[in-house]
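Chain X:
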Amino acid sequence: MLLAQEAAEEPLLVSGSSDINGSVLNDTIVQRNCSLHIRGNLKGSLTIEPGANVIVEGSVAGKVVNRGGRLVVNNRGIAEFVRVDGPAEPEAGGILRINLAAIAFNWDALAKRVEGECAAVVKADAYGCGIDPVTATLAEAGCKTFFVSNLAEAKRVRAVAPKSTIYVLNGLYAGTGPVFAEANARPVINSLIELAEWDVFTSSSQWKGGFALNVKTGTGGLGISLEEAGALAGRFRLSSHGITLLISHLDNAASPDHPLNDRQIRLLQDLRRLYDGVPASLANSPGIFVSPKAHCDLVRPGSALYGVNPTPGARNPMLPVVELRARIVQVLNLAPGETVTHNAGWIAKRSARVVIVPVGYADGYPRSGSGSDNALQAIVGGRLCRIAGRPSMDQLAIDVTDLSDSTAARRGEMVTLIGGEIGVDDLATAAKTTSCEVLSHLGHRFHRIYYAS
């Protein structure tokens, strides 16, 4: 048993079996076939050589390079949110595993890229991953501000993160002022009509919870115009103006070199001078990687927290979060010319072996393209196999004809639909849709496992 390590310029080199009681502050390299057990947090980067075994009983703050070893992170704070949800595993068509530690890691990695505050967007049930455990995890990781779609989501965030600041992106629906006060949530005001109604509510109720003012610096989306924002600047001279955040949205954040990005950044900077002292927010997940000038006072990542690549065309800096597996319920041997029930558009061109798993578009598995040009794949027995045709409501057929090990495609065996070689971005590309759509459609008929490792 070693004591906690002090920070040093040289990395900690583990060449045997080490057990450290406390946190490690410096970078760490665990050599081939060696082991390290840290009973605390790892503040520096971590490199794991092939065959090495690492257990951290806290959190890993730096970059992780795993070259073929094993890493287990038992974050005590996040561990209390580990749970299962949905139908029991034997009764479910698929098993959805959601790595809470990876979500916390992704948020922390993004927070380290900016000087201001890093918030979190947990709308659409945290992009399909579960708003309650995800919000609790992010709050434990240090996130203080959350963005949701509507008041129902705001109430759920308030229940698990009672001290947080909550903004409702869809704005103020007519007559909902008292509900905002009850949930202690702040509307994102998207029009002058909303602002007028909010003023009536706050003046009559004396509610001082504040609101965000959404300004359209680009060509699309919600928000008041720049002209309207300029005219409202006089309001700022009133002590009761109530504006707690200026926000806008980068229209072309996925294209960092797009010339309109700089234009939107400059426009918001000009507006901030009129609203001196009010914090501003412009960058979403890809916007964080456009330019430090886009960071303003607060960034609001969403999809990147859940493993979606915020830098299209480049290596994904985020850890994968979700894994979806399904159980084979039937094996079919087809003659040339035969098809699968409810699977119009795909016909066996040769003697084929097809397995059926009980997952379909009702579970959120994407359904696009025709049966003949389907690019969707699954992993069966460690190999990529083509989806046979289009998913039906409750079933998915997989062509395993070329699988060398037929025992891997027996009834009761598991196949991988998301995970390993098939990331969320890969599935979205094959389905000709977006990664956010794939995630947010993940159904609740799955047996869900929330874990932290």
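Chain Y:
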Amino acid sequence: MGDGDPALASLRSLQAGVLDIPWAPNQFVAGRVIPVRDASGAIRYLEHANLPFEREILEYNLEKVREREHKAGKKINYEEAIFDITEVSRMLENE
């Protein structure tokens, strides 16, 4: 996205929303992606926002989230994502 210039690529990627992280501390990062754990504990996207993934990757990601929903017997939503993040921080505190 930067025609060979990594700084320009970073800037343009942020502007396009294809460089994004959840709950971003930087005001220029969209912060629209929402991570969540799948049934095996791997990180998936509950919301992938504008990240430039191919359809096959997005379908696989959704399949893994649906497996967790099936195993848990409930819909995985924003509250579950918050729980997952706080659970990770609790695990790190106890190390």
